[in-house]
Write a structure and sequence with these properties.
By secondary structure, this protein is α+β, with helices and mostly antiparallel strands. The protein has a 7-stranded mixed β-sheet, sandwiched between helices. Helix 2 runs parallel beside helix 3, helix 4 packs across helix 8 and helix 8 packs across helix 10.
Length: about 325
């Protein structure tokens, strides 16, 4: 069954610069129970219930990025569940969020929901309900609740100078899905990319939480550059070694042929002046700006723990790469070499 239109994923996300302006000045209720709110641009909100328990709340949904409804359901669910793992938590429950055209065949929606339900089950979560509306285009996602010990919350803005940067999935999935839909990328590469997108970040976090990582986020619509920008939070800079950067080879080749995404161009417009490209390689530039749907976990870890963490990840078939370092603040926030 292939009846969906390719138009979204995290490529549909509102750009980081515009989103920040939208959130400025919104009324807030200050509470000592709110451990992580929207003012820190983190992946989820965290609310303290007791000295040993906090809940993680997140919501994520988007338009279709593949034509197969069952595959779309699995990818959208994996993407929404990822925000809980990015905070160091465990999935407790989830609610479906659905927008679906009134005139469309409901068997398509059934396939989407089947894919999503299977991923929630794989995560060990309870799918407890949801909400659906009619809309012109198909959209699907989850509102997810997770749990975490308040002392074990992973934030996206607590990295330290000298930390190494590790990413647990290859980059370039938006270039591949757009290129495949246009007939410019092979089905073999498309399958590799969608296999990566539907893989839960649970498996990487099950290993990472055993190490003293200093910060964590998942790479989604803002691309590697945007999520690293949030991680540095105006205090640090980062050096990226492109020889060690994980990405799909056909995404790189596609970018060089100008297979581009609207989200990638929004990311470039917002972040380009913060980056010192010491390379002359348009393909790699686009990989760094490419919006990721259900991308990998980006973590910072002290240098002394890098070797054992990487060995542990690789032994468990996580395609992680140690590709950069956190450095003192420089004129340009990110240097690519």
């Amino acid at each position: 069954m292939e009846q969906l239109v390719v138009c979204g994923g995290c490529n549909a996300k509102i750009g980081a610069g515009n989103l920040g302006k939208l959130l400025e000045g919104l009324p807030k209720l200050n509470s000592d129970k709110l451990l992580v709110g929207f003012d820190s641009s983190d992946d989820s909100a965290v609310i303290k219930l007791s000295d040993t328990l906090a809940i993680i709340q997140t919501v994520d949904f988007f338009p279709t990025m593949v034509t197969d409804p069952y595959l779309f359901g699995k990818i959208a669910a994996a993407n929404a569940l990822s925000d809980v793992y990015a905070m160091g938590g465990m999935v407790l429950s989830a609610l479906n969020i659905v927008a679906f055209p009134e005139q469309n065949d409901l068997s398509i929606l059934r396939e989407i929901l089947q894919g999503g339900a299977e991923k929630v089950q794989e995560a060990g979560g309870i799918l407890s309900g949801g909400h659906s509306i009619h809309d012109r285009t198909v959209k699907y996602g989850l509102a997810v609740t997770g749990t975490v010990h308040p002392a074990q919350i992973l934030r996206n803005d607590t990295c330290h100078e000298g930390d190494h940067l590790i990413l647990t999935k290859p980059l370039g999935v938006s270039i591949i899905t757009i290129g495949y839909s246009a007939g410019e990328i092979s089905r073999e590469s498309f399958i590799k990319a969608t296999d990566s997108m539907q893989t839960l970040n649970k498996y990487a976090m099950d290993i990472i939480r055993n190490y003293p990582v200093t910060s964590c986020t998942d790479v989604t619509g803002f691309g590697l550059a945007g999520h690293l920008h949030e991680m540095l939070h105006g205090v640090y800079s980062a050096h990226i070694d492109t020889k060690k950067l994980p990405y799909f080879a056909e995404a790189y080749e596609g970018a060089k042929k100008f297979i581009l995404t609207a989200g990638g161009q929004r990311n470039r417009n917002y972040l380009e002046n913060k980056i010192d490209f010491q390379i002359d390689d348009f393909g790699l530039e686009e990989i760094i700006f490419d919006p990721q749907t259900s991308g990998g976990l980006l973590v910072t870890v002290p240098e002394v723990k890098v070797e054992t963490l990487m060995k542990d990840l690789h032994n468990n078939h996580i395609p992680a790469a140690d590709f950069g370092t956190i450095v003192p603040k420089e004129n340009k926030e990110i240097t690519i070499y």
